[in-house]
Request: fold
Amino acid sequence: MKIHFPCPGCGKVFAVDPVHAGKSGKCKACGTAFRVPRPRLSSSESSSGLQAGNLSLSEALDSLEDNAPASPAANATGLEAAPAGFEDHAVGFSPSNYRASNPAGLPFHPWRYVRAYPKWFFIWHTLLAGSVAGTWFWWYLFPLPLLIGWLTAMYWREAAKLFRGGCVAAGKVLSLKPPLVATLVDMRKQGEPVEVVHIGPAPLRRLATGCPEPDQPLVMVAAFFNRFMRGPHWSQCDPSPAAVISGNREKLQQLHDSIDPEDWDLLDQALARIPQPWQPGHYRVYREQRWTHSPQLDVQQIHWAVQNYVATTRQVRLPHQLAPEEQMALRSFLGPVSDTDLLAVLPSKQDASASQALVFASSGLGYCFAETGHGFIPWEQLLGALATIDGLELTLRNGQRLRIPLHHFEIESMDYLDLCIDTILGYTAESPAR
Reply:
């Protein structure tokens, strides 16, 4: 099992072999020095403590107090070189390193774009015209039209970039009223695929090739964004039909042929597992192997995954930090979970009393939110998780999807939340069962 830990400087998550525990290195992204954490647990303590579920997370954290990431000043001299291939295991990296695997390369036609998406065109250009007119009466406002003019130019630049460098993806028309399109995208930055179906509105009646029919395949072009989240995958995608810009059917057919035929089948399979009526948002796609594979759970790995997640966010609270009334609130939906089984609590930022919270335990994941109700999911019944700008999606093996809105979480709490759950279930990048 690899050790996952974040860079103390930029938050990049590393996954390294246990043989490198205790070694020092330097993050290539930001230059911050760190030390690979190493638990001071003997094999006998591990088997009698963690595997038996008797060692609490707070005790495990106390055992690592000497292994906190080293500060740059503490290792200014005599810093050991990073292990060979160490950086190759990095999970997150700068968005500037992203390149579309299948760029569309479509020429940009501004008026076709305005016809399809008139809203922001009129907003930006009305602001620009108003600011220019304002300078005739108040000359000291002259910096305002310069600023709005620059923002308007950036608007056009990003629009052109989408169709020239965006990633070609498989799409399907779900309905015309409302106009909804499903798009299969891979939201990974690097490493293992993070396949997601994005369901969202599209200007279907304003396409250059005419209005498509429901269930018709559609070539889409997708751009990816982080929106303040810095996790191991993108937090949001923004797909648009290629026919918004191009009416060239030969070019559109070339883009269609460039999409892997397996993607079209996978999109249909994924849509069959998404509950109707269709709701806009991001939905994680799990291949058939993951649906049929039962995870091999390890109590020690569960404790380590939660501990690494606790180190990345300030919103999480440990059991000993809860007031008696908060512990009673948790008992109302945790059922048979014992005190020694409880690992960490992620309370809603709208309700600090822990009456709305996500609860990590050795045996499963508890939840209580106004939008989802309350319950407890044993790890064996959880298929996976996805953290995006929509919030947290939990997918159960029975096909049920629980969607917890983003407003319950701090942004930093979402960065590595789904990575933590995937690590618990054994579906991290190094797992052959993914």
